Structures are given as structure tokens and as C-alpha cells.
Structure to design on (179 residues):
């Protein structure tokens, strides 16, 4: 599934930065890889299920939502799994709620949650570690030359237009009107 492909890319990304920054020790690597499961050498397992409210409610352990900004019931899915992840942590287990997405439109649940707007209604993102990865940062991490980076960014902006580029490649929220 796409989420497992993304997990593999994130594992490679973390390995790259761990090595680049001279991190101590080693990170787990992929041991088992099939259509629904990635198992790491440290015993951690990553399952992929369709993004439905029924699948989110009552999940145990760590949970990752991919492209949550595109999910029609993102808030309900977050509300369905957050209590069980929090309970696992309180009980001394290592559990995390990982949310991955591009910027979406202002006013969407994902936007409000990320920016800490209306936390009484959308929940609080306090305590979450937030990463923003722009196209420029991604290309730098891959060792691209600055001149090639500038050319690539210009080509993508010319192809998509400035508003779509800002949303998808520069982590900026679009107005509700989509401008």
C-alpha cells in the first residue's frame, strides 16, 4: 500500500539524518516487508489498514495516519484512536500517534489542529513533535547542487502554479477559497 511505501521512505529519511548528524547507536532496519506489514529488526510491526473510522477506534500501540489532510473524517479518526494510544503511554508502553500530511486548506481540521486553533473543538497538538519538510530541504538532504535545486523549484512552480506549489511543496496552508 502507499502508506507502507511512505513508511519505507521515512525509514530511509531517518537513517540518512541519523548518519548525517552522527547519531550514536543504530536504528532498526526492515526485516519483513509485504503488502500489509513491515516488521523491523527490533520487533516493531507496522500494519496498513484502510483509513476508516471503524479501523481507527480501539487501535492499540502506535498509530500513524498518512495524508490526514485528505481524509474526510480526520477529526473523528483522531478522536477514535488518541485515547487508546494515550492510555498505552500512561500504562508504561511505548506508543506514539504519528500524523503525516501535506498542508491543506485553512479551516480544515488538520489546519486547525496543526496551528493550535480552536483546541476545544479539534483537540490539542501540544506535545507533538512537528516536522515540516519542503521541497528545497528534501533536495538539499539528497545532495543536490544549489543551481539544480533552483531550476527544479522553478520547473515545479511553472507547472503547478504558485498556490499549488506553496501548498504541496512549501508547507503553506491554502485559503478556503483555494487561491
Amino acid at each position: 500500500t502507499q502508506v507502507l511505501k511512505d513508511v519505507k521512505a521515512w525509514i530511509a529519511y531517518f537513517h540518512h539524518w541519523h548518519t548525517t548528524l552522527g547519531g550514536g547507536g543504530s536504528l532498526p532496519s526492515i526485516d519483513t516487508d509485504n503488502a500489509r506489514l513491515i516488521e523491523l529488526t527490533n520487533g516493531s510491526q507496522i500494519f496498513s489498514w484502510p483509513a476508516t473510522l471503524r479501523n481507527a477506534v480501539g487501535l492499540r500501540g502506535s498509530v500513524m495516519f498518512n495524508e490526514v489532510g485528505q481524509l474526510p473524517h480526520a477529526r473523528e479518526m483522531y478522536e477514535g484512536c488518541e485515547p487508546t494510544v494515550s492510555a498505552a503511554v500512561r500504562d508504561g508502553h511505548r506508543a506514539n500517534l504519528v500524523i503525516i500530511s501535506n498542508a491543506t486548506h485553512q479551516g480544515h481540521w488538520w489546519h486547525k489542529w496543526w496551528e493550535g486553533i480552536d483546541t476545544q473543538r479539534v483537540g490539542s497538538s501540544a506535545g507533538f513533535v512537528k516536522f515540516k519538510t519542503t521541497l528545497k530541504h528534501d533536495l538539499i538532504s539528497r545532495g543536490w547542487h544549489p543551481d539544480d535545486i533552483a531550476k527544479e523549484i522553478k520547473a515545479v512552480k511553472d507547472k503547478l502554479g504558485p498556490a499549488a506549489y506553496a501548498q504541496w511543496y512549501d508547507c503553506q496552508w491554502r485559503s478556503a477559497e483555494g487561491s
